[in-house]
Amino acid sequence: MVSNKAKAHIALLSLNIIYGANYLIAKGLMPNKIGPSALVFLRITGAGLLFLLLKFFVKERVQKKDIPRLLLCGILGVATNQYFSMNGLSLTSPVDAAIIVTAMPIFTVIISYFLLKEPLTTSRILGIFIGGSGAVLLIYLGNSGLGTGSLKGNIFIGLNALSFAFYLVLVKPMMAKYQPITVIVWTFFFGFLFMFPFCFGQLLQTDFSTYTSSNWTSLFYVIIGPTFLAYLLNMFALQYVKPTVSSSYIYVQPAVAMILVAGISYFIIDSQYKGDITIPKLLCCAFIFIGVYLISSNRSIKWLRRK
Fold first, then answer.
1. CB 60 within 8 A of CB 178
2. Which long-range contacts (CB under 8 A, 24 or more apart) does 215-218 make?
3. Among 54, 96, 56, 39, which residue's Cα sits nearest to residue 273?
4. What is the pTM for the complete model shown?
5. What is the 3-class SS of 183-214, one letter each residue?
6. How sure is the predictor about 147, in pLDDT bands with cuts at 50, 70 and 90?
7. Are 227 and 114 spatial neighbours (Cβ–Cβ below 8 Å)?
8. What is the model's pLDDT at position 303?
9. How far apart, in whole angstroms, are the C-alpha atoms of residue 33 and residue 222?
10. How many CB atoms lie within 10 A of CB 4?
11. Measuring CA to CA, which residue among 115, 105, 78 is closest to residue 235?
12. The pLDDT of residue 176 is above 50
């Protein structure tokens, strides 16, 4: 029988594969078919309603003292995260976005040190330095004119990763106290309230009459896959693993994004993504991966201590 911890790892792997594909699928919709903020509105609203349906089967109340934390989780983990994610992706390369997001474990470790008092070992400090250098360099490369990347879009993606890292740390105590669906319904409710004034106007400007069947399929995937299923899987996993473990699985995303972009660039002669996979970007990716390995590997910590 598969243990709950093993199931948590399977959930984390699955959700990051879903996220990895989403960079290319969501990018295909924006901005020609739908604005990024309008897509944020549909993601949060659509997934939020689905979570609310599930909540009918779970009778659980939250204590008033936990409302402020859930409010903050909704602002950071739903509204801010989604806003910068989609607006950043609409401006930059799906490869750049997928790689920059892998810096999230680095942010998580730093935040965990201050909020959860988790120790900063020599290995983790070195990992933060190496991985952080790769992330900063990659964000700057968005200004180089190579491929479809952009500096502003890359900065937005970096803010997306930072806000979700805060969310992972802040939501962990709630996972230990309440059932996942209870937490996620409250976070999406507060996320919706905070997102509404920034995104609803752009939704009204969207012309859905021009949508083809493939556009509707992509929109359905973005709402169900990386929003409803991914948040649900992440909530389940956080019951059994630490936030740092959850965030470390994010390296799967650029691998999936790169495979899809490489495939499209190979089979489509005039693909706009031909310049998105470059040697400097791959080196930045390697730096981030090394950094994530150092901050999450017990073996590397022991090796450094022997030195």
1. yes
2. 215/29, 215/33, 218/25, 218/26, 218/28, 218/29
3. 96
4. 0.83
5. HHHHHHHHHHHHHHHHHHHHHHCCCHHHCCHH
6. low
7. no
8. 33
9. 14
10. 11
11. 78
12. yes
